[in-house]
Amino acid sequence: MRKVVSGLFVSVDGVAQAPNEWQFAFDEQMGAALTETLESADTILLGRQTFTEWAGYWPTVTEGDDAGFAKWINESPKYVVSSTLDSVDDWANSTLVKGDLVAAVNELKAAEGKNITVAGSPTLVRSLLELDLLDELVLLIHPVIAGEGRKRLFADDAALKKLELVSAQPTSSGVIIATYRPVR
Question: Per the confidence metrics, is the pTM higher than 0.90?
Answer without folding.
Answer: yes
